[in-house]
């Protein structure tokens, strides 16, 4: 059991004892009560030291956790709350606290129709009722699309990662003629540009599977799960998007953005490695260090005539080819 959970159980137990008007508790009694509560929760013998309970009482008295509990010692040996109506669960909040809670509720409400957040509906309703905010309109709007194909798989994938379960996935990529049956060890769910991906371990390598190409998923209980202790920040640290190559090294990508649109790229960098190389009256030259992938190309093409790739040559040629094909599409319309 984590130390944080241990502490929460102790605080809850101490609160129950200190507000009990019909029984006197010495320090030794509080130690016994906390030890018993931990045993009931975890099923293991757990002795709480005198020093631990003394620190717990000190923390409850202080402003550290916002309790400021009125704990007193009476008859030189017994502990109780001097205010018989006090409890650490009776949290007092001011107007600013209520506003902050209300803002959080408005954000949570935007997820309540999303599959993996359905069980939050009751919690959100309780929060709304407790702070009387049901009539306030949302002032924050998050981009989401509940109609995306593949979202129906979120629940089983999430639970499989949480409970470390191996999966058998019927998968058909856009390029494949036939469906593939993949046995994978799920590690992470990732969202990029309103599309969801499963990052999983398969045949000695990490792979990326789009949820919208999954046809069927079943749990393989007989296969032992392999936990790769996946670090998402490190894995995606050298890419834009969700496509990572285990063999490709990141490259310096140099690009020029016109003066009018350079501030957008400056304030919202393509990548955390982005830096400015040069600025003049015509625009700004930037540099990022990333792998060359599909998402990088789509981001560059999305800026159209306002951006020009200066290097590497391979990426510059790809962008040039894509733009020539785009022009050809519109040229054929003029001839009709």
> Alpha-carbon distance between the termini?
72 Å
Order of strands across the main sheet: 6-5-4-3-7
Cα shape: elongated
- Indicate the low-confidence ranges by residue numbers: none
Structure description:
By secondary structure, the chain is of the alpha+beta class. The chain is 36% helix and 22% strand. It is built from 10 helices and 11 strands. The strands form 3 sheets. It has a 5-stranded antiparallel beta sheet with strand order 6-5-4-3-7. Helix 1 (3-18) crosses helix 2, helix 1 (3-18) crosses helix 3 and helix 4 (95-109) packs antiparallel against helix 5 (121-131). The model has no long low-confidence stretch (mean pLDDT 85).
Condensed summary:
The chain has 336 residues and is of the alpha+beta class. Helices cover 36% and strands 22% of the residues.
